DNA sequence: GCGATCAGTT
DNA sequence: CACAACTGATCGC
């Protein structure tokens, strides 16, 4: 649970993921993702009032987060004050103090965080240096090195401070099986059950939170069965998710919820109330996604664990493991690090003790901070390793292996796609929010400028923006998926003949699928 | 009636 | 099994 209070030392006039107390005075707000514990105060009367009299205050987030947030009527009042920023597009934002008229500019870049749909990290660049707020993240080893915009030329950016998701920053969480390994385990468990008959169904016992969507889409893709959920209107503009979900209860894969779901399940009833199909009782198993971890020297073991007659736990994590955190931070190698979370059973001091050695402040030959302008210019071509060694003597970032991995756009697209938000009608921007592309002298990367200077009612115009469809890595075939990663974690589930088959012999030999898009072969 | 907070549950 | 959110009790406006 995040204990970040909303403000960063370098840029105290902006607030991120907290909207109460001191944050009520912020010049701009940022939301990293749409989870309730990062939205404290976001719909409180105090902030609502502030918004009414401070017309230059906006909330910045990713297009997907904006879509998810505005689906809830409780947050509709934000509609005209949210500005979505495309992923990986440096964007300049004015920070205006409405009382004094004092103005400061900051450039923000959204980087995919792999935590839930729309989740991002914020990279801020301004007068007080470059800082990175990670929000909540799950990034595999090496993924920071593949992020183009964390780099300046071929080098990693000179980052003053990182505000870090330390949820699993404890050596006991040393390793967590990868997304692909967990997914593969769940796919095989589900396959082993639902292929027995159309009356064999699985219930995915998920918490009420965004973040399971890639599980649903992969299951649906694999078996040609949409996943039953309670609500799907939040995904109405995200076809890649929407098409894999249904509110029709006649499917073999359920992720519906009910306050008494566990109780229901004991009586062979799904949370949506279904107990049978064609008057034939269903055979149900529950699969509860939950985090599993292994210490540095613990033998790797199963990603699926049987917890009862018809219950399983399946490995699933929203957050990076200890070793993934170490990889991430040691690559960035900032001057300072601030934990956003104190994991239960540990202390701030212990977390700092773990993270400090990965920062420049404790290891640098030359610990003094140098502003960006004084850094040696990055070379255009990579050096060979020998030259590299020599170079370290006057390099203010004396950590090797911190060069960009050329292969970008590979943030596990096969299991964690960044959804595209598309609108049928052209998007209407009612603010005079002019975004235009210029060449940024410093980074040579495209920068958007958001100018809120004239956002008063008289200059309001309706800008017609063509329906946007952000760059998509493209569909990944099953073939590619299979080749992408061979799980090194053993997938465990009971032998097929161990799975109870009671009642199966009485089933009709019909393969009628009850409206399902695909009917599984019937044994 | 609404919201904030806390304890308990999953 | 450690996330994140719901539920219900309590208090205050």
From TrEMBL:
Q: Name one GO molecular function term.
A: damaged DNA binding
Q: What keyword terms does UniProt attach to this protein? A: DNA damage, DNA recombination, DNA repair, Endonuclease, Exonuclease, Hydrolase, Nuclease, Nucleus
- According to the UniProt entry, the coiled-coil residues are none
Entry-linked InterPro entries: DRMBL, RibonucZ/Hydroxyglut_hydro
Q: Does the keyword Nuclease apply?
A: yes
The segment annotated Disordered runs over 453-489, 502-523
A Gene Ontology BP annotation from the UniProt entry: double-strand break repair via nonhomologous end joining
The reply on keyword Nucleus is yes
Q: Where is the composition biased (Acidic residues)?
A: 453-463
Q: Where do the DNA repair metallo-beta-lactamase domain residues begin and end?
A: 240-343
Instruction: List, alphabetically, the GO terms of the cellular component aspect.
Output: nucleus
Q: Where in the cell is it found?
A: Nucleus
Which family is annotated?
Answer: Belongs to the DNA repair metallo-beta-lactamase (DRMBL) family.
Q: How does it assemble?
A: Interacts with LIG4; the interaction is direct. Interacts with ATM. Interacts with BRCA1. Interacts with PRKDC. Interacts with TP53BP1. Also exhibits ATM- and phosphorylation-dependent interaction with the MRN complex, composed of MRE11, RAD50, and NBN.
Q: What is this protein called?
A: Protein artemis
Give the source species: Rousettus aegyptiacus (Egyptian fruit bat)
């Amino acid at each position: 649970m995040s204990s970040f209070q909303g403000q960063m030392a370098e840029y105290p006039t902006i607030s991120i993921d907290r909207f109460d107390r001191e944050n009520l005075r912020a010049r701009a707000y940022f939301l990293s993702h749409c989870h309730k514990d990062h939205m404290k105060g976001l719909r409180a009367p105090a902030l609502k009032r502030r918004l009414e009299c401070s017309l230059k205050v906006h909330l910045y987030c990713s297009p997907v987060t904006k879509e998810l947030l505005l689906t809830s009527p409780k947050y509709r009042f934000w509609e005209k004050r949210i500005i979505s920023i495309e992923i990986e597009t440096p964007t300049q934002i004015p920070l205006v103090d409405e009382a004094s008229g004092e103005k400061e500019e900051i450039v923000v870049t959204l980087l995919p965080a792999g935590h839930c749909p729309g989740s991002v990290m914020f990279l801020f660049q301004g007068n007080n240096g470059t800082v990175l707020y990670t929000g909540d993240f799950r990034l595999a080893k090496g993924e920071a090195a593949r992020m183009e915009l964390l780099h300046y030329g071929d080098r990693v950016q000179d980052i003053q401070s990182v505000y870090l998701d330390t949820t699993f920053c404890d050596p006991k969480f040393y390793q967590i099986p990868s997304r692909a390994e967990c997914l593969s385990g769940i796919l095989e468990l589900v396959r082993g059950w639902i292929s027995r008959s159309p009356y064999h169904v699985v219930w995915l016992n998920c918490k009420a939170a965004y973040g399971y969507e890639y599980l649903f889409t992969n299951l649906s893709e694999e078996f040609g069965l949409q996943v039953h959920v309670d609500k799907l209107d939040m995904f109405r503009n995200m076809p890649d998710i929407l098409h894999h979900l249904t509110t029709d209860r006649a499917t073999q894969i359920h992720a519906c919820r009910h306050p008494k779901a566990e109780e229901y399940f004991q009586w062979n009833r799904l949370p949506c109330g279904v107990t049978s199909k064609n008057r034939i009782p269903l055979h149900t198993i529950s699969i509860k996604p939950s985090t599993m971890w292994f210490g540095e020297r613990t033998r790797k073991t199963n990603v699926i664990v049987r917890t009862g007659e018809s219950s399983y736990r399946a490995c699933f994590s929203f957050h990076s493991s200890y070793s993934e955190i170490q990889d991430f931070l040691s690559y960035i190698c900032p001057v300072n690090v601030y934990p956003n979370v104190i994991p239960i059973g540990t202390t701030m001091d212990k977390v700092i003790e773990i993270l400090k050695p990965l920062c420049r402040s404790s290891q640098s030959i030359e610990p003094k901070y140098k502003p960006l302008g004084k850094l040696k210019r990055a070379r255009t071509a990579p050096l060979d390793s020998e030259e590299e060694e020599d170079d370290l003597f006057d390099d203010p970032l004396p950590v090797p292996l911190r060069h960009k991995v050329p292969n970008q756009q590979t943030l596990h697209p096969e299991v964690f796609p960044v959804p595209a938000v598309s609108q049928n009608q052209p998007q209407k921007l009612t603010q005079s929010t002019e975004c235009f592309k210029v060449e940024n002298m410093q980074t040579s990367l495209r920068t958007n400028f958001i100018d809120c200077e004239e956002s008063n009612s008289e200059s309001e115009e309706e800008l017609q923006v063509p329906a946007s469809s952000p760059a998509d890595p493209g569909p990944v075939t099953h073939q590619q998926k299979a080749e992408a990663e061979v799980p090194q974690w053993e997938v465990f589930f009971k032998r097929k003949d161990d799975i109870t088959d009671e009642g199966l012999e009485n089933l009709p030999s019909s393969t009628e699928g009850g409206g399902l898009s695909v009917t599984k072969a019937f044994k």
